[in-house]
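Reading is simple: each integer encodes one residue's backbone shape. An example follows:

___
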Amino acid sequence: MRIILIVLIVLGSVTALVEFRRHITGIYNAGTILQTPAKSQVMSVDQWGLSTEKQATIILQYVGSTQAPFFELMAKEP
């Protein structure tokens, strides 16, 4: 039983390490390890399309609706 557990932990660790290496390699290949992107390449919050629900973009998948219980109850403006 221990051997199975060790094998599963090693496999899970290898997957995480491979993905970490892939991400770092992508950053290195893009040449952005020591350089931040130019201001023109960075989107401001206004460009995300969060002003109204009809103009919403893909960012709503990550932020959520402004009518969600989190924003209605917990993240109220003081």
Residues 43-78 form one domain. The first helix runs from residue 2 to 30. The chain has two domains: 1-42, 43-78. The mean pLDDT is 75.
